Amino acid sequence: MKSHAEQDAGTVLSSGWCCHPCDWLHGILSSVPQFTNSPTLIVMVGLPARGKTYISKKLTRYLNWIGVPTKVFNLGQYRREVQSYKSFEFFRPDNEEAMQIRKACASNALKDVVIYFSKEHGQVAVFDATNTTRERRVSIVSFAKEKGYKVFFVESICDDPDIIAQNIADVKVSSPDYLNCDKEEALADFLKRIECYKQTYVPLDDEKDRRLSYIKIFNVGSRYLVNCVQDHIQSRIVYYLMNIHVTPRSIYLSRHGESNMNLLGRIGGDSGLSPRGHKYATALGTFIKSQHIKDLKVWTSHMKRTIQTAEHLGIPYEQWKALNEIDAGVCEEMTYEEIQDNHPEEFALRDQDKYRYRYPKGESYEDLVHRLEPVIMELERQENVLVVCHQAVMRCLLAYLLDKTADELPYLKCPLHTALKLTPVAYGCKVEHVFLNIEAVNTHRERPGNVDVSRDPEEALKTIPDHF
Amino acid sequence: MLVLYCPQGASVPQFTNSPTLIVMVGLPARGKTYISKKLTRYLNWIGVPTKVFNLGQYRREVQSYKSFEFFRPDNEEAMQIRKACASNALKDVVIYFSKEHGQVAVFDATNTTRERRVSIVSFAKEKGYKVFFVESICDDPDIIAQNIADVKVSSPDYLNCDKEEALADFLKRIECYKQTYVPLDDEKDRRLSYIKIFNVGSRYLVNCVQDHIQSRIVYYLMNIHVTPRSIYLSRHGESNMNLLGRIGGDSGLSPRGHKYATALGTFIKSQHIKDLKVWTSHMKRTIQTAEHLGIPYEQWKALNEIDAGVCEEMTYEEIQDNHPEEFALRDQDKYRYRYPKGESYEDLVHRLEPVIMELERQENVLVVCHQAVMRCLLAYLLDKTADELPYLKCPLHTALKLTPVAYGCKVEHVFLNIEAVNTHRERPGVSFTKHVHLLQAQYKIIKCIIDSQYASVASDVVWHSVKVAQHVVNQTFSQAILTLGCRINDHT
């Protein structure tokens, strides 16, 4: 049987299904089909302090996590490289010299977008700039058309002075532009900056722009206008943008308490908690109560060990099958030593590419991410949530929340009996580790030095954690 | 003896605590009933009990239709009837939510005046229901004319009219509504939760989505379209496992399976389908089938066959031998039953939801998949219940062509004339009773024969019965016959 890959390597097929090495690898190994053929250029639109950079970064983090290579191109950064900021005067519409610099920066950013798409296997680029004039947007659209890129606009419109003031306080006064200013000065200057833009701001127009693809976000999401969604990836982007919010909240992540399998150094299975595991669950309950969390939702998997852990909390919990631990297939319930004995080649292959490696009759981390996507979407919709889950699952969730790469993800440290409190702050997430002082075995296996299939058993087992 | 299977918890979290009342808004012929039915079908399929309450049907029950004059805004008498119908429909909604475990009700009516919508909102507030409006706005005369031709002229209202008459009357009906139509307002209605759909989806306005189910509804509505297209469903060609009567596994195609794949390729080419997308699972048998088509295909892990866990690669006889209790539990509730370390049909539906969403976005698609998977997809497309789903007939070597038409789907079965084994297992309620009666009859015969001392004849019948009894849950019966068989042998 000729594999799909062999048939297609390097050729452009009749229906325009273009193949380069990244595509077929993506198609064969990944659990998701090709989302889009042409690269997509997302163009942010809006006055300063409307959340464009916040949206750009968050959207990029999400797309990368689900496996769509995405990158932000922030015009402010390009400008800062060629011109150190003096004052709002730079942004006056009549400042000819500054206008030339700004146009050159935009041009350089778009040149980098071309490199990202054609040479770095990028699929989505987010052009984070104000793009507030029709003229600028028209030139971007022709640029994209010429290159064969799809364009999707994301316009953020906000007239709530409180929200704008909050944005400015959160991220603007501490921007590199205002390094040597005090807060009052920075605020005053920034407000004048916004006024400069307002003079020439033309929002996307219902009539004139009816053929463009875009979403308009009003007042941080109370309302959306969606026009001409072209394809699957744009549909997913719209769905994501419509589910995120900025209401302050915290996400708590914890593994189940130490289980009997953990004690024996075995992976997978569906065992109950060990005595220490029960102690942890009680301690977790005490900790949660002490936090006085408003309307906390608790989620577990369908496996005994997370359910038993949640039982001690005394709060109603929801079970998600999607939160079940990674399925280790033929290696279920084995110790690492047994895996090395019975499947030494598989063990080595896993160490070579732990993210994509799929246990025979089991799953890969990549599969896990795909299965966790609805959990992430609901996590975005919710406010205070405690997720009681498993090592591999927690690594995937953490990678999403802290923007870790596929390479880093399978080696993130998620020890037993440690709760993580994640609080969104500015453009990222603050993390607090809470170790609840109940001892547990270590289940973390570092990547060994030798990942070759011909390696000796000792080399394979060098990094396995201790167990009974 | 027979243990009732109680799932510990559904595989989907609670979507919403309060019931949701979806209120359609729009002039006649704007696709409200189309959207209502399609959305209801989707929500029921993903496990959210949903029902449509169509005001037109309530009206037809109390008043046979004469002409558009009924809908004139100044027709006081008719207005009273219409209000009473709306009131009855909402009473039924209350019953559906409080007594029939409904979670979403779709109120399919024009609801074109502010007054009507205000009264619905207070009704819902009083009852503790959430309200979500779906307004369909269309000013494209071609689309409206198409709608009228597709579903209006053939409506029960126009049973005895010819097409021209029906069309003329219906257009006057629309004019009646236009006079008092007030669309949802950006300013005045800014606290209501709604989606406005413009011109069949080129544009959407979404306001104040309250919760998860409304978010899913919005996502679904933004992905459906009405462009004509066909969906082709086929299982992989007959596999080597199929030949052995084994379930699951990842085997390749049998020789007949390869023949089918080639025939499928020929059939597909003959259809001259525009821009056909082909989807397969990650399993060899669907990939091998697609290979014969000569068209690029995409692999979806989500399309993999149901995971039979500990029963993978067994025959039904082996399952009966090794896991008789599980086998019985499965027959009691085939939709929710989860194989140990495997999946249930319910899990499968959950896993297939992104496939359905993408199927809605696409146009012409051929999905090459597996028996249980195809049953789930078919149940969605043809609005089958969770009870019917696991018993839908999806034979090997038969392609199904589904074409959306009016409010439903036209199905064409294409058997490509390549023989294959039958892999369909009927609901045992039917065969169970049949088998029990058969056994009882045979038992009586055997007893007679033994009593008449024609023992040698009896033994063949006995062993046949034993084989049959292996398919029967109640093993004590087969034990009795086995014992009888021994007594016969002792005689001869």
Automatic annotation (TrEMBL), chain A:
Active site: H256, E325
Entry-linked Pfam families: 6PF2K, His_Phos_1
Listed GO MF terms: 6-phosphofructo-2-kinase activity; ATP binding; fructose-2,6-bisphosphate 2-phosphatase activity
Keyword Phosphoprotein: yes
Any one of the GO BP annotations: fructose metabolic process
Residues holding substrate: R255, H256, G257, E258, S259, N260, M261, N262, R305
SMART domains: PGAM (SM00855)
Keywords: ATP-binding, Hydrolase, Kinase, Multifunctional enzyme, Nucleotide-binding, Phosphoprotein, Transferase
Function: Synthesis and degradation of fructose 2,6-bisphosphate.
Protein name, per record: 6-phosphofructo-2-kinase/fructose-2,6-biphosphatase 1
UniProt source species: Oncorhynchus mykiss
UniProtKB/TrEMBL annotation, chain B:
BP term (GO), one: fructose 2,6-bisphosphate metabolic process
Pfam families named among the record's database cross-references: 6PF2K (PF01591), His_Phos_1 (PF00300)
Keyword terms of this UniProt record: ATP-binding, Hydrolase, Kinase, Multifunctional enzyme, Nucleotide-binding, Phosphoprotein, Transferase
Protein name: 6-phosphofructo-2-kinase/fructose-2,6-biphosphatase 1
GO cellular component: 6-phosphofructo-2-kinase/fructose-2,6-biphosphatase complex
Record-stated family: In the C-terminal section; belongs to the phosphoglycerate mutase family.
Assembly and binders: Homodimer.
Its job: Synthesis and degradation of fructose 2,6-bisphosphate.
InterPro entries in alphabetical order: 6Pfruct_kin, 6Phosfructo_kin, His_Pase_superF_clade-1, His_PPase_superfam, P-loop_NTPase, PG/BPGM_mutase_AS
Residue ranges of domain 6-phosphofructo-2-kinase in the record: 9-228
Active site: H236, E305
SUPFAM superfamilies given in the database record: P-loop containing nucleoside triphosphate hydrolases, Phosphoglycerate mutase-like
PANTHER family: 6-PHOSPHOFRUCTO-2-KINASE/FRUCTOSE-2,6-BISPHOSPHATASE, 6-PHOSPHOFRUCTO-2-KINASE_FRUCTOSE-2,6-BISPHOSPHATASE 1
GO MF annotation: an example: ATP binding
